[in-house]
């Protein structure tokens, strides 16, 4: 069976679980997928790691297109993703409907878990600076090097977790409160592209077409992404 090697940002991990098997059944092409934060994927690509297809934030994909690693004409925007907050299952949901409420909720938290390498963590670090509460939040923050911030809710290290909603939803035993107010964020756009040196160019093209097709929209929505 032909195998397509895909390197993807963590944001698509939930959706890809079911999409990979549907694609395999329909096409007979296997998907060998590896997931990591955007910055980690970029680092691996720059270190020469081989792949047929990559899914990154639009900015990340544009960088590797500029470096001549990804074919510009192959780029396709797949989904939009908002940063949200989560609590442990059964815990009260603080109000985060506007900036004032969000500031209050963040300051009241014992510890806020956010990611160092993910797009959501970079955004959140800038947001708390803009809100003037960076020193207070970082003094008690649980910084996650790599992986899912909501796992720190389950372990009891933090009582609020910040990450892309699609990433928060990967963790059992937590509840997503909702997105950071939309006026405070620009959604991340996840985009796919075919590697210049793809070994399985045709398989990568087929997978790309499938991921950009309307039939995957319900799965993307269910995993916390907007098409």
TrEMBL record:
Family matches, as Pfam families: SBP_bac_11
GO biological process terms, semicolon-separated: molybdate ion transport
InterPro entries in alphabetical order: ModA/WtpA
Superkingdom of this protein's organism: Bacteria
Molecular function, one GO term: molybdate ion binding
PANTHER family: BLR4797 PROTEIN (PTHR30632:SF11), MOLYBDATE-BINDING PERIPLASMIC PROTEIN (PTHR30632)
The protein's name in its UniProt record: ABC transporter substrate-binding protein
């Amino acid at each position: 069976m032909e195998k397509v090697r895909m390197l993807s940002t963590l944001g698509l991990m939930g959706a890809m679980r079911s999409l990979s098997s549907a694609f395999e059944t329909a096409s007979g092409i296997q998907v060998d997928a590896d997931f990591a934060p955007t910055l980690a994927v970029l680092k691996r690509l720059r270190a020469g790691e081989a792949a047929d297809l990559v899914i990154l934030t639009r900015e990340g994909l544009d960088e590797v297109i500029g470096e001549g690693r990804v074919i510009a004409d192959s780029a396709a925007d797949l989904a939009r993703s908002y940063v949200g907050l989560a609590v442990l299952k059964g815990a009260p949901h603080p109000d985060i409907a506007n900036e004032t409420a969000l500031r209050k909720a963040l300051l009241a938290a014992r510890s806020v878990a956010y990611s160092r390498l993910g797009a959501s963590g970079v955004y959140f670090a800038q947001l708390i600076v803009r809100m003037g509460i960076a020193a207070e939040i970082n003094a008690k923050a649980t910084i996650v090097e790599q992986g899912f911030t909501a796992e720190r809710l389950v372990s009891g290290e933090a009582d609020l977790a910040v990450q892309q909603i699609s990433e928060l939803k990967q963790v059992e035993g937590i509840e997503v409160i909702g997105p950071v107010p939309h006026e405070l964020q620009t959604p991340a756009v996840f985009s796919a592209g075919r590697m210049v040196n793809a070994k399985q160019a045709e398989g990568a093209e087929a997978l790309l077409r499938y991921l950009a097709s309307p039939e995957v929209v319900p799965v993307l929505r269910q995993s916390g992404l907007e098409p």
